[in-house]
C-alpha cells in the first residue's frame, strides 16, 4: 500500500493505493458515513491484484484534516473526488467508481457534471441514492395516494436524518444507530460518527426541497440491498428515465453489503468493469 495527500478547498484528504499499479483498470472507492476508507478493506482484499485500487478518506472522516467551517456540501465533495482522480500518478484512462452510502450520494453529484464522462468509465452505487432523484420520487408519490404507504415507509426508515437536524438530539443519534447495528457490520470511530452529522445538515433538506434534475451519462450499476434498514429497495424506481446505461441489482443483504459480502461486491463491480473495457 502506498499513499499521498490531496489538498482541496478547506481540507487535506489522505489517499491510499492498493492492488496492481500496472493493471489495465483503476477502481476508485468512495466510502460513506459513519465510515472511513477502511470499510473497504474486505473488498480490497477480494480484488487483490486484478485492478489498481484507489481509496481515500472523504473530508471530515478518518485521517482527513478539515479546516474550521470548511464546506461539506455535496458540490464540494464532488470536487474532492475529481481532485483525487487528478492526483493519481500515471493515470492514463478513466476510473471505475464504486461508492457506498454517503460516498454514493456525493458521487451522484459528480456523475451529473459534464466532466464525468471523461473521468469515469463506470459507476457502481450501493445504498446511496441521488438526492435529486429522491426529490422526484417523493413528489411523484405525494400526489398518488396509492403510493403514500411507500413514502411513509421510507420516511420511517429515515428517522435518523430528521434527528440529526435537531440540536438536542443530533449528538445522540449516532449512538442510537450504533446500538441498532447488526452483528458483522463495521464499528465506526466516535469521531467519524460525530463529524458526519454535518453532511446531513448541510445537504439533505436543501436538496430534497430544491435542486437540479438528476442526470448521469456514465454506465451505472445500482445495488439495492433488500434488507437495508435505512433505504427502501424501491427507491430505484424511475432511475432508467435518466440513466441511459443502467443495471439494477437487488442483493439479499443489509446496508453494509460491501463490508459483509466482499466477494459478491467484487463480482458485481468487476462485471461492470469488464463490460466497459
From TrEMBL:
Keywords: Hydrolase. Residues 26-262 form the AB hydrolase-1 domain. Gene3D superfamilies: alpha/beta hydrolase. This is Alpha/beta fold hydrolase. GO terms for molecular function: hydrolase activity.
Amino acid at each position: 500500500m502506498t499513499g499521498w495527500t490531496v489538498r482541496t478547498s478547506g481540507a487535506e484528504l489522505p489517499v491510499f493505493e492498493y492492488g496492481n499499479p500496472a493493471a489495465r483498470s483503476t477502481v476508485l472507492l468512495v466510502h460513506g458515513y459513519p465510515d472511513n476508507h477502511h470499510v473497504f478493506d474486505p473488498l480490497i482484499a477480494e480484488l487483490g491484484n486484478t485492478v489498481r485500487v484507489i481509496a481515500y478518506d472523504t473530508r471530515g472522516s478518518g485521517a482527513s484534516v478539515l479546516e474550521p467551517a470548511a464546506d461539506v456540501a455535496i458540490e464540494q465533495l464532488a470536487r474532492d473526488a475529481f481532485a483525487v482522480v487528478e492526483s493519481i500518478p500515471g493515470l492514463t484512462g478513466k476510473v471505475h467508481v464504486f461508492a457506498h452510502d454517503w460516498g454514493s450520494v456525493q458521487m451522484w453529484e459528480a456523475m451529473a457534471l459534464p466532466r464525468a464522462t471523461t473521468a469515469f468509465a463506470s459507476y457502481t452505487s450501493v445504498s446511496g441514492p441521488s438526492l435529486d432523484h429522491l426529490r422526484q420520487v417523493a413528489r411523484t408519490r405525494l400526489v398518488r395516494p396509492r403510493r403514500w404507504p411507500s413514502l411513509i415507509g421510507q420516511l420511517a426508515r429515515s428517522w435518523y436524518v430528521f434527528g440529526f437536524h435537531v440540536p438536542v438530539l443530533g449528538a445522540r443519534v449516532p449512538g442510537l444507530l450504533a446500538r441498532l447495528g447488526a452483528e458483522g457490520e463495521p464499528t465506526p470511530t466516535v469521531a467519524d460518527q460525530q463529524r458526519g452529522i454535518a453532511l446531513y445538515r448541510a445537504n439533505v433538506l436543501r436538496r430534497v426541497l430544491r435542486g437540479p434534475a438528476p442526470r448521469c451519462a456514465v454506465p451505472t450499476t445500482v445495488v439495492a440491498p433488500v434488507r437495508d434498514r435505512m433505504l427502501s429497495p424501491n427507491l430505484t424506481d424511475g432511475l432508467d428515465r435518466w440513466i441511459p446505461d443502467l443495471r439494477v441489482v437487488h442483493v439479499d443483504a443489509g446496508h453494509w453489503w460491501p463490508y459483509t459480502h466482499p466477494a459478491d461486491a467484487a463480482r458485481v463491480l468487476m462485471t461492470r468493469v469488464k463490460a466497459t473495457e
